Amino acid sequence: MASTSAPRTLLLRDLPFAARLTIAVFMVSVGVGYVSALIQLHFQHATPGSLMPTAKNAVDLFHGPIDKPDSKLVTLVLADESLPFKGTGEMSRAFTTKSAGWKKLLEKTPGTEAAVRKERMGERDSLVAWARAGHKKEEYENDEYVLPEALADAPITAKYLKQGGGPRAVKIQSLINDRCAACHKTGGREAEAAEYPLDGYETLSRYLKVETSSAMSLIKLAQTTHVHLLGFSMLYGLTGLILAFSSYPRVLRVVLCPLPLVAQVADISFWWLARLDAPYGPMFATAIIFSGAIVAAGLMLHIVLVLWDLFNRAGKTIVLLLLVAAAAGGYMAKTHIIDPYVAGESKQSGEEPAPAENK
Ligand code: HEC
Predict the structure, then answer these.
(1) Residues 80-101: pLDDT tens digits?
(2) Which of 8, 88, 119, 197 has the fewest Cβ atoms nearer than 10 Å?
(3) 109 alpha carbon to ligand 1 midpoint, in Å?
(4) Shortest CA distance to 303 belongs to which of 32, 36, 52?
């Protein structure tokens, strides 16, 4: 039977207490989850010493370093030691602090670090020279790469220099095996690195190809795209739907409820557009910082506004106390734990906090 009174929209406030409580706990756990996602973002993509990725980090990651037509391998071994030691950071410490027996070596021969580092940089430059000069298979197989003029006098660890007359040459395969494949092979020093074997010419040469852009691989990009679109869409869809039934003005709900979803679609399309040639690619990469911030701000508003709308006076007081406690806790964590930690990161890598402009 049709009722005579005008249909009334369901409001969050009308739900049974158990339902509202569940929604409240859901929102809080989404908030905590989002904070941990931010922590992961810091470790994965921010330059040590800065809290969140900068526009430059975004350009490097999604567009590829500008003006560096180099292979992935060369880019990584020449990258700044202050970057994270990983596929999107740097591999230059493979020659120094991350090389096998580095600590022991320096303990055995104290005071020689500067000299040892010079020899290691000689190794690195030899590898770069070989990579840039066409990285011939036969040089790799014969373990002999004749050094160019520029490296005729460079200090290089004796172990990797070809002995017995002839032009100065480097044992290129031995060098790569010790410095890279020690981790990058099945059963190597680091399980994570074993997924990218560098102990044979075929797999090695994948990283020696010069691509016009050395941004994140297409496979990785496709993977993160579907994880984000499917996973986070569910999340933002739910928080948005819940907010849609709140008692806030219609305008606010119409704008804010779908906002994180819209911003996320824009964000992810920027990931792909960032691969365009300069100047457009880097512009889209820079925009990722902003679209990402809008997603985050939108979700935070969903959480806070819904929590505020769920309960009556007494409940609101509790929510308010919780929000104040979270804000105070967040502030304390930032000044006492996060800031000192982030500052320590840049010291640890022996660098000043990343300058705004890197060469
Ligand atoms: C101490 C162990 C270690 C050493 C030594 C090392 N790497 Fe790595 N490498 C890693 C780890 C760990 C990763 C990150 C894997 C990941 O992102 O999951 C990585 C990632 C890479 C990647 C990116 C793979 C990809 O497709 O994302 C390349 C290329 C690479 N290293 C090259 C080198 C080269 C060249 C050397 C030698 C100069 C070297 N590595 C030495 C541990 C090492």
Answers:
(1) 999 999 988 999 999 999 999 9
(2) 8
(3) 28
(4) 32
Q: Ligand 1 centre from 98 Cα, in Å?
A: 11
Q: What is the pLDDT of residue 358?
A: 36
Cα(51) to centroid of ligand 1, in Å? 24
Q: Atom 28 of ligand 1 has which residue's CA nearest to it?
A: 87
Q: What are the CB-based long-range contacts (under 8 Å, 24+) for 131-138? A: 131/71, 131/73, 131/74, 131/208, 132/70, 132/74, 135/205, 135/208, 137/201, 137/205
Question: Is-contact 194 184, C-beta < 8 A?
Answer: yes
Distance CA 334, CA 347 (A): 18
Q: How many other β-carbons are positioned within 10 Å of the β-carbon of residue 66?
A: 14
- In the structure encoding, which two tokens stand for residue 159, read together? 């172990």
Q: Taking the CB of residue 106, how many other CB atoms lie within 10 A of it? A: 15
